[in-house]
Amino acid sequence: MRMEQAALRAFFLWSRVVLLLLLLFPAPARAQDAHVVRIGIAEDLPPYALAATDSGMEVEILRAAGEAGAHCRIRIVYLPKKRLALAFEHGQVDALAVNAEYDVTRETGRTSFASDITLVYHNYAITLADHDIRLSSLADLGLFRVVGFQNATQYLGPKYATVVALNKHYREVEDQARQVRLLYLGRADVAVADKNIFLYWRDVLQDSPESRDIDFSHGLAFHDIFSPAPRTCVFAQPECRDAFNRGLDIIRANGEYDRILKTYSGWQ
Predict the structure, then answer these.
(1) What are the tens digits of pLDDT across the range 142-193?
(2) pTM for this one?
């Protein structure tokens, strides 16, 4: 009996020693224990966002700014465009990478706080140069066979939507590689797309055996009839937005921002 009591006292004494050591010398924080901020972005918008490799110009800027400013781990969540607002509304992501004109609060009913501009997309009306098509305004699009990207009428403003609604030869495609095919095959006169995205898919198709029937020797004309589209990152918490802005300032000052852009300079 005395031996059992002695053993029990020894056990409790040892337990206290272990607890004291843990309090005095806590285990170092692991990388995976860092605060995680989930940023939603439209899936597969190369060269801005590539879900398969978790990379891209915009993805790397978001990750670098978030980690520099908030010292947190950024997890990019790739979603179909139509699910972005819903994911933010239901708290499935903490932030969204969107066009600066997109009113996230109005669309989701959830208060949001927009960051400084992260980068700028620029859509063009793209034609084959040897077709000598002249486009000086949105109204001119009503005269040609036009292929836009999915939901272009929502992103490019009411005037664009009105013009193409009257054009029976207008269509939109989800796969932006199809815009390249349709233009080079002569099945569309005008492709409406961001310049970097269009050139990315052109280069991919040029290297694809499935595109041997396409003549890529034609030069391209980029008609600047759309305003640039600044991008921002919209957060649910103002503190996260502020930290992210600090990170943007840091990576612009230390050269990391320019390094990211140069990595993808082949399509600029």
Answers:
(1) 999 999 998 899 889 899 999 999 999 999 998 999 999 999 999 999 999 9
(2) 0.77
What does DSSP assign to residue 29?
P
Tell me: cis bond preceding 47? Omega within 30 of 0 counts: yes
Place of tokens 């992103």: 155
Q: Which two tokens stand for residue 180?
A: 């390249």
The amino acid present at 104, given as its one-letter code, is V
User: What SS3 state is found at 25?
Assistant: coil
Domains of the chain: 32-120+230-267 (3.40.190.10), 123-223 (3.40.190.10)
Concatenated DSSP letters for 6-55?
HHHHHHHHHHHHHHHHHHHSPPPPPGGGS-EEEEEEES-BTTTBBTTTTB
pLDDT-derived band at 34, boundaries 50, 70, 90: low
Residue 98: Cβ within 10 Å count? 24
Q: Positive or negative CA dihedral for 143, 147, 148, 151?
A: positive
d(CA 205, CA 212): 9
